[in-house]
Amino acid sequence: MYAIISDIHSNLEALSAVFERIDAEDVDDVICLGDVVGYGPDPEPCIDLIRERCRFTIRGNHDDAILGDALDFNPIAREVIEGTRQLLRPGLFSSATKRERWSFLKGLEPARREGRVLFVHGSPRDPVKEYVMKTDVVFAPEKLQDIFSRIDGICFVGHTHQPGVFVEKREGGRMVYEHRAPHELGREASYAFDEAKVLVNVGSVGQPRDQDSRSCFVLVEEDDEGRPTRVRFERVPYDYRPTMDKIEAIDWINNLCATRLEIGR
After folding, report:
1. Helix axis angle, 43-53 to 12-23, nearest 10°
2. pLDDT, tens digit, for every residue of 128-178?
3. Protein fold of 2-263
4. pLDDT in tens, 201-245
5. What φ, ψ does residue 250 adopt, rounded to 5°?
6. Percentage helix, strand, coil for the chain under 3-state DSSP, each rounded to 5
7. Could you tell me if 220 and 230 are in contact, meaning their C-beta atoms sit under 8 angstroms apart?
8. Could you give the CA distance from residue 77 to residue 257 in angstroms, rounded to a whole number?
9. Where are the alpha helices (DSSP H) in the chain?
10. Average pLDDT, rounded, for the chain
11. How does DSSP classify residue 77?
12. pLDDT of 173
């Protein structure tokens, strides 16, 4: 069994609570789908934890913007990216640790495929930036058809901060798509994989946006040959008040980034 986390967004309190939960499970590996930084007050210790604990990490759009520019971000997110960049970018006399963090971000891969499983931050056709929304089921089925054409079996994503499962099915000679949030998957909030193509959004550790303030991640069960058989959504409560206090004390992080932690939006 392995765990998949995503969208930490420099929230050390949430990340620590999630790793505490993971350590209580029979987990062999941890995979991160990106956005280690952005929005939150603790990019450095979060990068250090992810480097230490995760088998591999995928590049998220905030990680990517730290290295380039944030022109396509809203003003609040852009200001945090610029402040985080100033904090992380090494100078001439920077420590080895600071240089290693920067090198880690530069080395993040946009996607990884292992057998029939694809790991990205955004979507199969734009691994870093494209959002796959539950509203696409109704308003953009042709978008989902294109996305699912690039999936061999299972694709794990983050980015939207909204956990759930997208499934492709054939009805009346055409492909249709459905989305189910964790609370629609039964008491265990789990989904058993079969032959259908599936896209799983693992939710967000550091900034949930499904009106639930608890951190979200998934556990993936495997058969004896290492093939995923089931995914289970996990919610972890944590004390977000220290994170809020730290955000409010930093002038380049808008206080909205604090208040949204309490309401999960």
Report:
1. 20
2. 999 999 999 999 999 999 999 999 999 999 999 999 999 999 888 788 999
3. Purple Acid Phosphatase; chain A, domain 2 (3.60.21)
4. 999 999 999 999 999 999 999 999 889 999 999 999 999 999 999
5. -105, 120
6. 30, 25, 45
7. yes
8. 9
9. 12-23, 43-53, 61-67, 75-88, 96-106, 136-139, 141-148, 241-248, 256-263
10. 97
11. H
12. 79
Q: Which residues pair with 155 in a beta bridge?
A: 118, 199
Q: Which two tokens stand for residue 242?
A: 């220290």
**Which range is least confidently modeled, 1-10, 71-80, 168-177, 233-242?**
168-177
Residues whose CB is less than 8 angstroms from the CB of residue 162 and which lie 6 or more positions away in sequence, other chains included: 133, 134, 181, 201, 203, 209, 210
Query: Whose CA is closest to 206, among 81, 35, 53, 75?
Result: 35
Quote the longest CA-to-CA distance of the chain: 65
Q: pTM higher than 0.90, yes or no?
A: yes
pLDDT at 52 over 90: yes
- What gap in Å lies between CA 126 and CA 132, rounded to an integer? 10
- Reference 105, options 67, 50, 162; nearest CA is 67
Look at the alpha carbons of 135, 14, 125, 225 in this order and tell me if their dihedral is positive or negative.
negative
